[in-house]
Amino acid sequence: MDTKHIELVPPLVEAGKSSDLAQSGHMVFASFSPSNNSLALHLVPLNLTGSKTSTAEQPEAVYLAGCDDVPSSERRLFIADTVVIFSMFKSMLKDAQSRDPTWLQTRQALEIIRKLSVDYVNFIKECWIHASQPISRPEPLQFSVEHYRSLYSIFSLFVVLFVPEPGYEDAPVGEELMEWLNIHFIEPSTEEGDQLSSLDHPWEDENFWSYLTRSTIRGFSKASLFFLNILLQHPSEDLQELVKILIPLVESHPRLPQFTAERDFAYASRKWKDKVKALRVEMDRFLDESYDWWDPLSDLVGILEGRGDVIERVCEELGADWKEVCAAWGIFVDTRLRRQDLPDVVADVIETMPPDPTNLEDMILSSLFSGHAKQVLKHASDFDLWLSAHLADIMEPLGLLDAELDFESGVTKRDEYVLAYAEYLRSDSTLWRITIAYLYSCGRVGEEQADEVLMRVPLSLNAATLDRSLTPSDTMAEVVKDISAICREHSRESVRRAVCKIASTMLVRSRDYGMAVSYSTSAEDWTGLGRVIDAVLDEYIQNGPVVFAGYASKIAPSMDEIQSNSRTNQIFAHRLMFTVRYSQMHETRLERDYPNAALDLLALLRDEIAPRSWWPILLCDAVEFMQYEPKLLFSSSDAIELLRKLEEISIRSSQGSGDDYLTVLIRTIKGGGEKEALERLKQVRLAIARYFARCTVGHG
Amino acid sequence: MIQTGLITSAHSDLLTCLAYDFYGTNIASCGLDQKIVVTTTDQSLKYEWKAHNAPITHVAWAHPEFGEVLASAGMDRTVRIWERGEEKAVLLDARGSVRQVEFAPSAFGLKVATVATDGWLRVYECLDLGKLDVWALADAVELAREVQEVQGGWAVSWCKDRYWGQVVAAVAGATDVVSIIQFSPSTSPQTVLELKLSPSSTTITTVAWAPSCGRSYHLIATGGRDGHVRIWKVNPPMLDVIDGDVDEKDKWSAQLVADFDDHARIGPLEGGVVGKVDWNVTGTILSSSGSDGRVRLWKPSLTSGGRIWRIAGSVGVEQKE
């Protein structure tokens, strides 16, 4: 396999002078992109101290390079269409095997495998036809017409040999092989035939006999008979006599499809061969004559007699290869040739007529004929990773590949080829859905690779959206939903949670706290939830009560759900409750419903819903309520409660625990410290004292 | 292989390090000009700023669950933590240039390992994930004495799985031994394994621990001043220890499974060094960068237990003839 090598542009050194790079004190570093196995490369100094500048044009440039050609044009359609068949196959196998582990041996299983294999063949055929059309395309073809033709011939042969119609595994395979050969390697050409038939004396043309012989080998009796009938006008009367016997023989050549029972076919073949032998006897009368038509006619009869040595020699002379010999074997030499007999025949044939080692298609075809599954896959993976993956995928359930899991590596032979194909698909990160469809079918290794691919599907609030009606967070939500659905399908809960965690973090940064809370809860990430809540509370500190209330109202709807969920960590549920209710208190206050706001505030303190670090803030809020003119909003026992909290703060602070109570208040006083905070609380103490006075007066 | 793009950098001097973010959509680079530059992969500049008071040696992205967080290491002996271009923390313990920073797997929190030319490996943990400004030194290990820059190698790479706890592979100074060190909250750091070459020969300059993605063994790649890329197959211990007895199976063990000397020759001369080894995110391809002016890619055969490798591509920087 040739090593792929490129030189980057613009170059950094002259041709053949890589050593200049080190001499000038430089080296090139590479880093893998997580999204698609591509590389970013750049110049670096060999040593950091005393580094020299580079003479390159753009020494700070970053080069990007990829390992594989990203699928484009018709190849993308091919990949997208065939994954549908693959997925159907996988889900069918999974369903069936969970019901009955021996299902693979049943006829029904084989029928399904055959149907899907034929689907692949039809897809490839369509792609080949489409590629051959001389239409104008937006992009040129990525793979050649010839490539698709090869895929078509290979996959068709695979189906013929290894996925026969259920019930016909032991039937003779000659006709199907010849049919395959005639479809994919057309000989002789119709042009030749047309050209010959337009001549007055076709037998004078140098191609006449090779055409006639080839038609016969290929089983084109109509064409053979046409030209045999023309030979009746040949000047030689001897030839005319022989041809008169030959014609009915060719006409009556028994072919398997003409019979319903193989036994009848076998009988008819034997009888027919006897007649051919009789013709041979007739021909032997002319051994001494030196007719120019004798040799080719004898060869023709030799073929009909089923003489393998004649067929081999004739094929070689015609420029036909081992495939033709093998196919002809099943029609003429051994009419009952079975699939399991083929490897022996092939082994003999390719000894004298080997396949072309420079032609991968030929190597794959000969490995198929020989029944060497591993060789098939090895050559197929050199030819096209799609091919080796999909062949291996069918070979394993058919028992052609060892399905044993290699414990150390965690993969089977089939997995190896499917994983290689998936790695090729990784070159385009937009194909991720297709990539993971293949990866999740490859056991533990595939699953973990797929998890990695899923995790790397970008979540972004900056992504350009096609749908203008969707906000950035809606767009991201769609992606998360998509990924979550796939995670559920394949039972990858840890991935789903990880993705939700990331989404939550991003949404916090963009202040979409409501959605952030949903994602943290969905991931059961309680620390993350705590951070969201802290961020919302921070809005109060940074931007004041109005802004805070606005944001907190977005997380309020989640509160009920979180509290009723028994899995919620109660500490965070509690903090969430404080945040929501504190914001509600501010909303009530902003609506000027002071009595209720005051009650809410008191409840937060008295019922210990507010954390200690927020008591000073709430006490400062209470001042406004205590100064409310129209009526007394707190009872005297309420006021005592406020005082009690204040006392606790003062005492603990003087004992050195100021941090527990004062940090939030300090943050709201720009440039202040503990001293300023305690000063602020002195104001609260004064307000409470005045309030007590009002209470007394009120009562008095 | 195929070249797919060229990003003209905003740097005014050579780069020393480049790191893709988690999704591969942004690239952070740092260099001799003391700047960090963040660009998108389709070449629009996002941020650039002067980050250190001396050349920056390394830059790394944290997991996105912590936000858009970067760590940088500099020859000014500091490690700095950034969020979207804003400095969040400066870590000052190193008494030599800090040569590499790597974030731990996110399961262990927001933690970063650093290695400096003073020979120390230090692990820091962020204590306030909301503000990112409070970091504590969680662990410190003296790996080596201080050596001159041109003779030494400093590298650290975390084990990417959480199953075996917090484990790193690290080198410092002029050594051919890679230390595998385990950190745990209740005990001091333990060296659980050493990857030693025998006979000993070179200084290791770079270490990379492959993501294991379903394999039952680990792969650690190293590069050395002898121009060799080596790959170690590391077997972690079986985790259920019965009766508190420690037997052979319960220890970490390693074997050298690959040794490539392709970077050792620069043209007809000996003397190439390997500067960097890097794995892709599925641990299926290794890249090695050498002073022979080549970057090479290596792929293991999946069913060989890490024993059979082939070269899967290479990149050079020569003018085409």
Automatic annotation (TrEMBL), chain A:
Pfam families: Nucleopor_Nup85. Its main location: nucleus. Keywords: Membrane, mRNA transport, Nuclear pore complex, Nucleus, Protein transport, Translocation, Transport. Component of the nuclear pore complex (NPC). PANTHER family: FROUNT PROTEIN-RELATED, NUCLEAR PORE COMPLEX PROTEIN NUP85. Functions as a component of the nuclear pore complex (NPC). Belongs to the nucleoporin Nup85 family. This is Nuclear pore complex protein Nup85. It comes from Lentinula lateritia.
UniProtKB/TrEMBL annotation, chain B:
It comes from the Eukaryota. It holds the Pfam family WD40. SUPFAM superfamilies: WD40 repeat-like (SSF50978). It is found in: Nucleus, Nuclear pore complex. WD repeats lie at residues 49-83, 197-235, 274-299. Its main location: nucleus. Keywords: mRNA transport, Nuclear pore complex, Nucleus, Protein transport, Repeat, Translocation, Transport, WD repeat. Belongs to the WD repeat SEC13 family. PANTHER family: NUCLEAR PORE COMPLEX PROTEIN SEC13 / SEH1 FAMILY MEMBER, NUCLEOPORIN SEH1. This is WD40-repeat-containing domain protein. It comes from Lentinula lateritia. The lineage of its organism: Eukaryota, Fungi, Dikarya, Basidiomycota, Agaricomycotina.
